[in-house]
Amino acid sequence: MDATEVITLYKTDFESVRPVKTRGKSGMLRIRQRFDKYRIEKRLGEGGFATIYQAYDSIEGIRVALKIPHQEVVCDNLLKDLKNEVRVLARLNHTHILPLKYAAFIENKFVIVTPLGEQTLNERLRKRMSLELTLNFAEQMLEAVAFAHEHRVMHCDIKPENMILFENNHLRLADFGIAKIALRTVRSSGSGTLGYMAPEQAMGKPSFRSDVFSLGLIIYRMLAGKWPEWPYEWPLPGHRRLKQKVPAEFIEFLKKSLQVNPKKRFTDAQHMLKEFRRLKSQALKLAASKRAKKTTKRSGTTRKSKSRSNGVRALRRIA
């Protein structure tokens, strides 16, 4: 690929990022550095595949995220894979899939540019969420993956760090296509995000059902407050809290998603989304019913308290 060639892309990956420690790695960009039309503002994080920066686009007047693969992983084979993925990903134009503005070589560095979100779902999980918001996020991520599966594209690295939140709680799933390349590179170095993978994917045999498993893990965590762990035997951690929040049929939906045997799961995210939408209304109705009962109970308690108070005052007047 010529260094001046710009590849227009439509999807990207946001690798798992972690707080950055000063490591003195060569090739790092400096804060306030001018980088073509971008001004580097801060380093957002670093993973085994790339470093991610927040930058200001001086031409468009907007802030963006720059993902720059580490120099040691960029090679002819990697670039060839990226170009092949772009041709596939051009079909994935969806409101809940993070768009990629473009990719190009800048100062001999391969740069992937995406819109800058407010935070990741992983960061949002540190705060309490209502059931309505939880199910809203779940539906958005399911819609994104279902659309990809409809176009025969697997994600292969579904995790909260790859779910970017924008204003009004709009979720966009990142890491499509390029995720497979990034993970192949990362795993070759002995690292990776195995905690979110289906068992068969960790063995090198991913399928659409593997994405279903990862989605089930995240939805379970959002509802139960705890991550399921191997060997995924029920009741899983947080099961008691889960039973208080959703009906039994919804729990069965999660059980099916988290089956260790992939043949027992939903075949893909399209089937999973269809079942989720049916159960979502049931879960919201149950929550509304519980709130109504609590309100009625509190109201009855208040009336009894007032009645006792009025009775005491009447007795005092008689006395």
Helical residues, percent: 40-55%
**What is the tally of helical segments?**
9
Number of strands: 10
CATH H-level name of the largest domain... which superfamily?
Transferase(Phosphotransferase) domain 1
Largest sheet: 7 strands, antiparallel
Rounded to the nearest angstrom, the radius of gyration is 24 Å
- Order the strands across the largest sheet as they lie in space: 1-6-7-5-4-3-2
Q: What oligomeric assembly is this protein in?
A: single chain
Number of domain units: 2
Assigned CATH architecture of the largest domain? Orthogonal Bundle
List the helices and strands in order.
EEEEEHEEEHHEEHHHHHH
The poorly predicted ranges are 1-24
For the termini, the CA-CA separation is 99 Å
Q: DSSP strand (E) fraction? A: 15-25%
Q: What is the level 1 CATH name of the largest domain?
A: Mainly Alpha
CATH topology of the largest domain: Transferase(Phosphotransferase), domain 1
- Overall, the morphology is globular
| Average pLDDT score | 83
Structural class: alpha+beta
Note the topology.
Elements: E1 6-7, E2 34-35, E3 38-46, E4 50-57, E5 62-69, H1 76-89, E6 102-106, E7 109-115, E8 119-120, H2 121-124, H3 131-150, E9 163-166, E10 170-173, H4 178-188, H5 199-202, H6 208-224, H7 239-245, H8 248-257, H9 269-318
Antiparallel strand pairs: 1-6, 2-3, 3-4, 4-5, 5-7, 6-7, 8-9, 9-10
Helix pairs in contact: 3-6, 3-9, 8-9
Task: From the structure above, extract its key features.
alpha+beta; Transferase(Phosphotransferase), domain 1; 3-stranded antiparallel sheet; 9 helices; disordered N terminus; Phosphorylase Kinase, domain 1; 43% helix; 319 residues; 10 strands
